[in-house]
Each structure stands twice: as C-alpha cells, then as structure tokens.
Amino acid sequence: MTALINVPGRAKRGEIVEIKALISHPMETGFRPGANGSIIPRNIIDTLRCTYNGAEIFRMTMTPAIAANPFVSFFTTATESGTIAFAWTGDNGFAAEESAQITVE
Amino acid sequence: MTIVQPNRRLFLAGVALVTLLPGAARATADEMAAAIRAVTGGQPLRRGRVKLDLPPLVENGSTVPLRVSVDSPMTADDHVTAIHVFNEKNPQPHVFHASLSPRAGKAIVSTRIKLGDSQRIVAVAEMSGGSFWTASADVIVTLAACLEDLT
C-alpha cells in the first residue's frame, strides 16, 4: 500500500499548519454485489490516528461512506520540532504507518 | 367478487413488500436522527457555528469532497472536541467521527465521501463546554456510488 502525507517541512513556533494524508485502499463497503452476484465482503480502514512527538493530535473513525483511497486534511499548531506520525488500521488486520519531520523555528 | 377481494389484497401486499425491500438496505432520516441522538445524548442541537461545504450537484457519488469548519477559538477552555458527519440514504447513517484537541488551532476537517443517492448530509460539532452545533447540506447525485466499478 502507498501512503502520502503532506506536512510543511518548516514552520514558525505557534503557526497553524495544514496536514494532509492520502492512502491507497479500496474501502470496499460490504454492500455491493460482485461479478458473480454475491456481496463483496467489507474491507475498509476504520481508524486514522495522528501523533505529534508521540502525543495524539487527531483521530478519525471511518465508515464505508468514506471514498476509496481515503484523503483527510486537518490542522495543528506547530509547537516543537519533531515527528508527525500517521497510523491507519482497518479490516483484515490492515495496518499502515507513515511519518514526516517538521522543523519549528 | 368476495373471492377476488382477498387475492387482490394479497397481491397488493406483495407489491408493497417488493417495492419496499430495496429500501431496507438504506438508512432513513429516522436512523440518522437516532445516530445523532446517540452522539448528543439528547442534548439540543443548535444551528450555526458549523459550516458544511459540499458541492450542491455531484456527478459521481463515489468521491465527493466534504469540508467541515467550526467557528471556535480552539483554546483549552473553549474548543471543539469532536466533529461527526451523518447521512440520510447511504446503507449506514454514519460517515465519520473525528476527535480534535485545542492543539488543532483551527477546527477544520476535510475528506472525500461516498453518496449512494441524492440526500441531506448533517455535520455535528461537539464543544468542550458540552454544547452541540449543527449544519446540513443537500446534495443532488446524478451517478450514485456503489453502482459502478463492479469488478
């Protein structure tokens, strides 16, 4: 799977920065019939968790109503230099992680 | 005629059942209201402070951009703790629940959602003070999600 995250590399202390995350995933709803007429089993990402130097800053619970290849954007205050890490978890033991560095001046 | 009447009723009941069945796989306005009540715990929902941005007319329901912004100072005393989004006619009433902290700075969350039909979308913001604010938007979908890409 591929995850793309967009975090500004540099920010002023106290600046409010936008964070974007995109991950490739089918987000199969579990409500659609497949080619042979039977329902395709549900396979979604249900949780996105974002931490800033280990402290949770954002969490999202997703449902099948989130589009395939889930995209999420939100804001955070740049408090200190460090790591902004994302963790996605979902059905069938799906787990993915991605992180980016931010330098706060 | 007395023999025909019951058959006619049976037939009408059958027609009603068949036409109602596809609807069983969809959430309804009542289910959405129940899902919202489960979040608010019966607290009153106030209009305002929440802005829900969605295109009014959507060609493809598989990917619809959605943005919820809440008017809040995002301080430790007064901030948005959660943003919830609900729908009326997808199979399930929930779309997503996001948890925020004062560190967010701005209470704005964007994502892309699926819409199975033309319907009303409702956003609910939960404040640190315990109040709930809401906004809704009506969307017309010309090609619903779930009907294409049958692989």
The CATH architecture assignment of chain B turns out to be Sandwich
How far the N terminus sits from the C terminus of chain B, by CA atoms, comes to 51 Å
**CATH fold category name of chain A:** Immunoglobulin-like
Sheet with the most strands of chain B? 6 strands, mixed
Number of helices of chain A: 0
What kind of sheet is the major sheet of chain A? 5 strands, mixed
Task: Outline the structure in words.
- The complex is a heterodimer of chains A (105) and B (151).
- With 105 residues, chain A is an all-beta fold.
- Helix content of chain A is 0%, strand content 54%.
- Chain A has a single domain, classed as Immunoglobulins (Immunoglobulin-like).
- Chain A contains no helices and eight strands.
- In chain A, a hairpin with a 3-residue loop joins strand 7 and strand 8.
- With 151 residues, chain B is α+β, with helices and mostly antiparallel strands.
- Chain B has one domain (26-143): SoxY domain (Immunoglobulin-like, Sandwich).
- Chain B is 19% helix and 40% strand.
- In chain B, strands 1, 3, 5, 6, 8 and 9 form a six-stranded mixed beta sheet that branches. A three-stranded antiparallel beta sheet of chain B has the order 2-4-7, with no helix packed on it.
- In chain B, strand 5 and strand 6 (94-100) form a beta hairpin.
- Chain B is globular and about 65 Å long.
- Classes of the chains: A mainly beta (105), B alpha+beta (151).
Short key terms for the protein model shown above:
heterodimer; A: 105 residues; mainly beta; Immunoglobulin-like; five-stranded mixed sheet; three-stranded antiparallel sheet; 8 strands; 0% helix; elongated; B: 151 residues; alpha+beta; 2 helices
